[in-house]
Please model this.
Amino acid sequence: MITLPVYSPVEPVLYPVFAEKQLRVFIKRDDLIHPYISGNKWRKLKYTLRRAEQEQKRHLVTFGGAWSNHLVATACAAAKFGFKSTGFVRGEEIQNLALTLCRIFGMQLIFTSRESYRDKQALFNQHFGNDSQGFFIDEGGAGPDAVKGCAELADELATDFDHVFCACGTGTTAAGLWNGLHLRGRSHTLHLVPVLKEGERLPGTIQHQLTGKFDGHIHPGYHFGGYAKCPPSLAAFIMDFGAATGILLDPVYTGKLVYAVADMAVKNQFKPHQKLLIIHSGGLTGIAGKLNDFSFNLIS
Ligand SMILES: *Cc1c(COP(=O)(O)O)cnc(C)c1O
Model:
């Protein structure tokens, strides 16, 4: 059976900005689900892997950038549940922590020019069209199975949060979470923080995956210059937050997410005594891609 025990406690966040504004802020530690099948990546893979098993496909083929948390998660999950795995990596061959982890977990890596990377189905057909075991998993694990897995997060939440915050890449996780809350009749307000520049387009791009009309809030102003950009203000925030709470945020997703919540708190966008929940979607290998951005000491 393809399953993992989901260990994801909800912890209070004791951070001065939130205390000053008399907010009760909590964080859901999906980053603790698994060290490598981390955060939303297990939720996104769960039903995808079960479908592969049902269809008796033993070779997972997927796609990602050189720092893709999805590639690492797929490589590890494949090894754990007895699949072979191949990852198409966007761009020229390089070595880094994420790709080394992929290799350690037995994933075959195929570096692919940015141009041919655009047509993933063509790449799959070209390399594995004759492989009866081949199972296509889209970039980031996106798809209906992923949305279904992410909806289960809603089952694990107390009912009394006023606001729930989620980082968005493709928005698949957010779509699942919105559906989960909606189907369970929850009244929390869902806030999405896109980490890509084109984030304001997000509700539109995920609407077809939703079980109703999106009624959350989108905060497109926290991308810090675009995907995987980590200017000093973001690095400084991650360091300050880490030093104050013992919780590690990644620079690509959760750092921007928690920065956004703290910034909105400073700007009095929540009422005193409201209860806020931040989803920590994992991704901590991202730190290794930004080591130089954390090379200064914070002076307090
Ligand atoms: C992949 C990832 C996301 C983005 O998830 P989407 O479903 O693509 O929006 C968010 N946070 C972390 C840590 C991730 O690794």
Observations:
- The pocket of pyridoxal-5'-phosphate is lined by residues 39-40, 69-70, 140, 167-174, 250, 253-254, 281-283 (CB under 6 Å).
